[in-house]
Amino acid sequence: MSSGREFDLSFRNISYNVMQKHDHTHTAIIKNLSGSFRSGRLVGIMGPSGAGKSTLLNVLSGFKKANVTGELMVDGQLLSERRSRKLVSYTQQEVNLWRSLTVEESLKYAAEFKLGKSSTEQKMAKVRELLEVLGLESCADTLTDVISGGQAKRLSIGLELLSDPKVMLLDEPTTGLDSVSAYQVLAHVRELAARGRVIACVIHQPNSQQLQLIDDLFVLARGRRIYSGPTNGMVPRFASFGLHCPVSYNPADYALDIASLDQEDDRLKRLMMDEEKDIFDYKCSILNRIKSVDDSYQRYSLTTFQQLGVLLRRTALCVAKDSYQLKARFLINIVVAFLISIAFYNTGNNADRLLSNTAVLIISLYAIFFSSIVSAVLVYPRESACFVQESKNNWYSLKAYYWAKIIIEIPTLLISSLVYIVIVYYFTAQPLELFRFVMFAGMCLLFGWISQMIGLLLGSLMSVQTSVFCSIMVVVPTSLCSGFFIPLRDASIFLRPLMYVSFVRYAFEGSLSAIYGYDRPDPECPEVFCYFGKLRKFLSFISLPELSYEKTDVTGEVMVDRQLLSERRSRKLVSYTQQEVNLWRSLTVEESLKFAAEFKLGKSSPEQKRAKVRELLEVLGLETCADTLTGDISGGQAKRLSIGLELLSDPKVMLLDEPTTGLDSVSAYQVLGHVREFAARGRVIACVIHQPNSQQLQLIDDLFVLARGRRIYSGPTNGMISRFACFGLHCPVSYNPADYALDIASQEEDDRLKRLIMDEEKDIFDNQYSTLDHIKSSYESYERYSLTTFQQLRRTALCVAKDSFQLKARVLINILTAFGISIAYYNIGNNADRLISNTAFMILSQYVIFFSSVASAVLVYPRESACFVQESKNNWYSLKAYYWAKIIIELPTLFISSLVYIVIVYYFTSQPLELFRFVMFAGMCLLFGWISQMLGLFFGSLMSVQTSAFCTIMVLIPSYLCSGFYVPLRDASIFLRPLMYVSFVRYAFEGSLSAIYGYDRPDPECPVMFCYFGKLRKYLGFISMPELSYEYDVLALFIWIVFLMVAVYLSLRRRIKSE
């Protein structure tokens, strides 16, 4: 146990600030805290929620380091950040234990990690001592999963006690415990403190009995100290400032009341000022003393290899005790194996079923993939809390944990996968040759190992749900490139490079090789003729060119005025306002309506449009906020505006999804009042409404009530209660009918509800209409859109002008970057001794333009996708109009920001001051920026901002590798050379070189005695570009631009359909 000599943990001027994301200001969580915790005394840290109690412990323990200032000392000596955890242990509020181990086993393994140099007898003696001291002897053989909360708290403290820390910090050790258990925990903690340790614990609201166990208190209020000293001195201290504790009042509760006072309270102000008078700025210069104190310091008690051994033994024991997941994995693999065996029974040697047998191979890979990845993604999330706590408290290294996870998962993979492989291989009648089985099994196991590693990677990065989703996102493109769905010979020039890196393809080809390769005899033909009687013919043919496209699962009929409604034209009559309000936040309310009128009332005169806008502002009660930005109006006003935007086209049918969600009762009533008024003017209006109050229900004329997708009532609102009563469902007196309807719809297998549903559905009919010709005659004058691209451009330009932060930021960043590069490459443009540096300047300029262009472009679609999808689906404008507006409106931004950069760097790096060269260089940079922008638009329209940024980097890396700067064309391998002929970066780089060095430019000056590249021709030959063709490079870049423009259009079209 700890030494009897007294010492203390002291801290001076500790502050911790966090930056607010919305305005980038810094908020102080704890402010200039100073204090001292003495050994032998139990210190209780108190304060209301948000006072900074847990943050203080995180700082003192070293768990929180960023944005922390101040000094931390043990026994008067500054504590180095690297070694603080040897002296200080930190037990967090949440108890993290290995649920498959008993109490004694948990302590034994902790002793293995923490007491590495001790003998086995010494470790066991320490474990038995802690079981006795902590009162855990009675539950020593009980699993930690089933012990009480108090026992779990004491065990978590005991795990850290094994290393005999001088300082113990406990975060709310009594939280979640009853008063008896909380008292027991505090009593044990106080006993540990009495043995010569510094122990400080955050305690939220101790009762009077618990408070007697605490020797000293440290009370916080909004990150500032209001008391530090003996427990029995707190009440007199507060009283001296006019804060008198009432008789028979728990002093701890009174301390919390004072800490919760408004900081403008004069008494609390004076108390804080007096407490903080000892704040000082003393700078300690005794860091050298730490080294002498900790000369014997070892971060871990065991070597990495020894840690690995203990981790493997502990994990194996946990798996053996909690083998549910392992058994489930085996069982699922066996069941799936038998199902596949039944479906593909005896196909292995049948020439007439070779395609089916090939399907067995790819399906087997899928089965192993999902079996391996699903179990692997659970490994880290299942034990992450324990791992983080143990690692931060120096039980073992990350390296040891990593290898333990890799090694322990391999036997599970081998056994579960082999069970599946043996069953499928035998029952599908694959060739019974040992070498083929070994090859096939080996390929499947390697594939399973890859799948398992992907699962471990995803599981360590994100939640289980996201990991499973991402694993599917990994397998889909890799499977597409497997060679099963699209053979290599049929793959497009864009898909083929992906096929060379798809691990699914190599596993599939390896499986094919094991089953069909190595001079296997032709399979038997049970029919008169088998098209694939020869294996060679099958292996050269194998493909599935026809892909199944997703079909809708919606059936039934939709009619307006008893006429079937065509899918293409339905949106002219029907408008749909979604639950989420999507508005252009840079426009005012009136501007939003004006632009909507431009789109929807194209043939009307300007006066008619303005009159319609004014009418809607008046009808919807939006006149007072007409000039307010939509980003600043209230929720109710936003809901009304979203309805008004659709009203401009005067639809016959309006569908509203929860128009009152997120509104207070007054705003909800106003919105419903306006909606009812519109219905009274001759429209069909149906709205989903979640739980209307009695006042709102009076505004609803008819109700359509659903229960699990089936109708239980349709009719007038005032007839619903009597309808339900007919089936024995009586609404109580003074009960909101809407709430009662929800209660009925939420009932389980109720006989009365069943009879009600049966009666409601007796009018279901199967009439087949043949009146599609009626629709065509009714809509001969139908026009889907009213306007062209021009109005779209005007609105987008206005939004950009009103919200120009991104443009200004882009220009500013380009200017700063330009000056930075100009300083680095100042005056190198005509220096023969620095030609390589000048060439590096060109490739670096491309990097700048690429990231500047792509970073802003990937934000374009995500920023306005919700508005675009809603407006496009409600026929405001065509995809084509939106597409060209995006393309055109981004070009001025690209030209301005890029030209600013180009002019600065071109001048200060002393490139040739010839107009035609500047125009050529600028033109090449702008074309390259345009391609970068189109790439950003493409990725931004396909995926999230984060994924888009990642994908652009994944495109950039191989493109720059093939630019000709890093690997000249003459040195490129046979595999890299084809990529260099399609790399847009290479053509932009060559074009820049041509602009600067081509067209008979004189040799540059040589400022030293000898320049190796004194002749430009020699230098261009050295970088493998002796012949430069600017026109050829421009043509290649234009081809890329056209290709990407088509790709962006198709991606937007796909996004519209998917949404």
From TrEMBL:
Q: Where in the cell is it found?
A: Membrane
What InterPro entries does the entry give?
Answer: AAA+_ATPase, ABC2_TM, ABC_transporter-like_ATP-bd, ABC_transporter-like_CS, ABCG_transporters, P-loop_NTPase
Principal place where this protein is found? Answer: membrane
Per UniProt, the keywords (alphabetical) are: ATP-binding, Membrane, Nucleotide-binding, Transmembrane, Transmembrane helix, Transport
How is the protein disposed in the membrane?
Multi-pass membrane protein
**Domain of life where this protein originates:** Eukaryota
Q: Sorted alphabetically, which PANTHER family does this protein's record hold?
A: ABC TRANSPORTER G FAMILY MEMBER 28, ATP-BINDING CASSETTE TRANSPORTER (ABC TRANSPORTER) FAMILY G MEMBER 16
The UniProt entry's sequence similarity note says:
Belongs to the ABC transporter superfamily. ABCG family. Eye pigment precursor importer (TC 3.A.1.204) subfamily.
Q: What is this protein called?
A: AGAP008945-PA-like protein
